[in-house]
Design the sequence.
């Protein structure tokens, strides 16, 4: 059986296009190191949560990999159409609503229909610290028949270009365990350090995930129209 499409119907395709346009407009480019080996699914993907665009960037990465996924969204009610691309409500002030989403997630993971993109720190915050990973990670991993947990590091760099660059690094998948919250957090922290080193010393390790918007001098370089001055 083929994997279900991430974007559902016409509205899903509209949201998909909005996400991709937003990333192209916001960044000079998005670069990544995808998983080095096949990942047992269903899986939980656990990135850090240091930037507003984290969900959008992970959407690009996971759709590129062909991993259909669910994503818990605290601000879901502000844009319910995210449901058409895997979004699920996870309201901060509604425990019953969060519980309903967790139950539905567990059912869909057990069916093999979807994976889960989980920002296990629970809230967006400034780098470089990592907040503790919440109990939802171990609970869903245990109840949902999860085969692996995949740590991911997302770094944003603002220096060389008019817009920031984004770097996404997938780590080694880990089997669920009683210490998965601690282990996944440590793995993400290690990946963040490794990615910082690679960005500065081995940019060739990264592949282009999404082209962005060039700098003003790249977009409007008049030398393109004056070849004799090149």
Sequence:
């Amino acid at each position: 059986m083929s994997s279900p499409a991430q974007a559902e119907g016409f509205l899903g395709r509209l949201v998909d296009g909005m996400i991709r346009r937003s990333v192209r407009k916001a960044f000079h480019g998005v670069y990544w190191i995808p998983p080095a080996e096949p990942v047992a699914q269903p899986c939980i993907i656990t990135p850090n949560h240091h930037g507003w665009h984290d969900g959008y960037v992970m959407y690009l990465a996971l759709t590129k990999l062909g991993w259909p996924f669910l994503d818990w969204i605290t601000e879901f009610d502000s844009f319910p159409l995210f449901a058409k691309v895997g979004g699920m409500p996870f309201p901060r002030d509604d425990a019953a609503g969060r519980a309903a989403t967790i139950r539905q997630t567990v059912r869909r993971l057990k069916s093999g229909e979807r994976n889960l993109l989980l920002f296990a720190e629970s809230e967006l915050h400034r780098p470089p610290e990592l907040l503790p990973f919440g109990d939802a990670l171990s609970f869903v991993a245990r109840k949902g028949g999860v085969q692996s947990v995949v740590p991911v590091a997302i770094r944003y760099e603002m220096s060389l270009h008019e817009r920031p660059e984004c770097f996404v690094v997938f780590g080694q998948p880990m089997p669920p365990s009683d210490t998965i919250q601690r282990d996944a957090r440590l793995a993400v922290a290690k990946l963040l350090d490794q990615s910082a080193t690679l960005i500065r010393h081995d940019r060739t390790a990264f592949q282009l995930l999404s082209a962005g918007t060039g700098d003003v001098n790249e977009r409007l370089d008049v030398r393109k129209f004056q070849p004799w001055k090149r």
Observations:
- The beta strands are 29-33, 43-47, 69-73, 87-89, 115-117, 148-157, 165-170, 207-211.
- The chain has a mean pLDDT of 92.
- Residues 80 and 87 are 8 Å apart (CA to CA).
- The two ends are 54 Å apart (CA to CA).
